[in-house]
């Protein structure tokens, strides 16, 4: 783990990862994106992004996955900060410290989380007075799931995933995430999904979230939610990484209430009955040698929020 000090005057924002409880992928649109119907849940794996005025743009990587953070203009936190600077004509450069505990390229919105965090942090540092709707609009230009990471909790996503609607939900859910050493590229997984559908001459209906999943969330019943987990990108992720199917099946055999590839993968998310059950499942999966890195988390949790600010609020 890399430890890097936070600069004086920095604004730090804490931001969660997400899992898609259900991800229905509709037809490919003319802009290349796919129409989605999805239900997101924010989970308690967090990045922290700190921004401070600096005499040039720089990224300071830190945390569990520090060595996997891009430090160039490809970094979504940098793109988000530059977007805000350009839009509000702020002629300043920033040092952006990213403390990364969300798996990279794992289907848990790690890059999107940093973009959401940078938006909130810059808004605060530069005192722009934007409301959540204005931030969400900017967020959507940076990535399909960035608006959800701003809001957190549970939400339904439509359009390309950026249009959010609240869902009725109760209870706290306990997850085990099986993390792979190497990520999967989101565009490649969507392209594989298209290829498999074309090969099978599959009918692609307009996507809809299932009533079973909504009922499971309303009742807070983990067994019902486990049975309703679904991801249309799963066949594509399995096709690109066949060992993920074995991992998913093993977790369910070891007692998970349900197992599903998270987003575009390769992280596999397992829902368990309780905190204790998540510990037991972690032990079984670790002993199976099917994956190297396991993380436990609970959901839902809050979206991006300021944790320290020179303004003291
Ligand atoms: O919006 P985001 O930058 O996260 O999307 C990354 C890539 O994932 C897109 O370039 C596209 O290939 C694919 N994608 C898609 N349909 C969506 C969301 C993402 O095809 N609704």
TrEMBL record:
Residues 75-153 form the GHMP kinase N-terminal domain. Pfam families: GHMP_kinases_C, GHMP_kinases_N. It catalyses: 4-CDP-2-C-methyl-D-erythritol + ATP = 4-CDP-2-C-methyl-D-erythritol 2-phosphate + ADP + H(+). The active site is at 18, 145. This is 4-diphosphocytidyl-2-C-methyl-D-erythritol kinase. It comes from Terrabacter terrigena. It comes from the Bacteria. ATP binds at residues 103-113. HAMAP family: IspE. SUPFAM superfamilies: GHMP Kinase, C-terminal domain, Ribosomal protein S5 domain 2-like. Pathway: Isoprenoid biosynthesis; isopentenyl diphosphate biosynthesis via DXP pathway; isopentenyl diphosphate from 1-deoxy-D-xylulose 5-phosphate: step 3/6. Belongs to the GHMP kinase family. IspE subfamily. Residues 213-277 form the GHMP kinase C-terminal domain.
